[in-house]
Amino acid sequence: MRKQQAQAGDIVLLFVDESEALTHPYLARAWAPRGADLRVPAPARKIAVLGALDHARRDLVVTTARTKRSTDFIGLLERLDGLYGPRPGQPTKPVVLVLDNGPIHTSKASRAALDARRHWLIVEWLPRYAPELNDIEGVWRDLKAHHLAHRTFTELDDLDTTIHDAVANLNHRRQRDPLVSPRISA
To answer: pTM here?
Structure first.
């Protein structure tokens, strides 16, 4: 029902979640002789990627952080404030935030930040262990399989820049309905 409301323009529906991007390559597809070791020597450091996918507009809003903590989630909420929050003299649509029950969403600090926005932000909690219900999961797969796969990053700043460039590219190229022409990673 919420997706239909978003498509009709009655609400803004945002699917929110986090992922991690690694400095060592994602091997989306690889060939090697049977029994060969497919390891690529690289430093294993990571960046947390926190995002919100606007269901109707298909836009992805992303922040990155060196950690994946409540303060990082609150930073994403602050970014959403500027994009979707109420503005004086302008009508606003209700914003529905779809969240899983991850610890960074349910901490005291995160609950307080969500509660402070309750005048314009409605939270819909997903059931535990149901990533298939969160539309942003497909975006994370696309990002990793088509933009970060088979690449090694020696510096976290290079990985961070690549993530933001990939998100800009995804936002630019994403179709209104991503299922019309899915890119399949086999």
So the answer is: 0.83
DSSP 34-80: TT----------EEEEEEEEETTT--EEEEEESS-SHHHHHHHHHHH
Q: How far apart are CA 126 and CA 20, in angstroms?
A: 20
Distance CA 112, CA 158 (A): 34
Q: What is the pLDDT of residue 43?
A: 58
Question: Is residue 29's pLDDT more than 90?
Answer: no
Listed in sequence order, the DSSP H helices in the chain are 2-8, 70-84, 103-106, 108-116, 136-143, 156-173
110 has pLDDT over 80: yes
Distance of CA 185 to CAs 9, 19, 58, 170, 182, Å?
32, 18, 20, 16, 9
Pairwise CA distance, residues 5 & 13, whole Å: 8
- Name the DSSP letter for residue 126: P
Q: Which two tokens stand for residue 71?
A: 């303060």
Summarize pLDDT for 144-153 with one digit per residue, the tens. 888 888 888 8
Q: Which domains does the chain possess?
A: 2-24+44-173 (3.30.420.10)
Residue 28 · residue 147 · CB < 8 Å: no
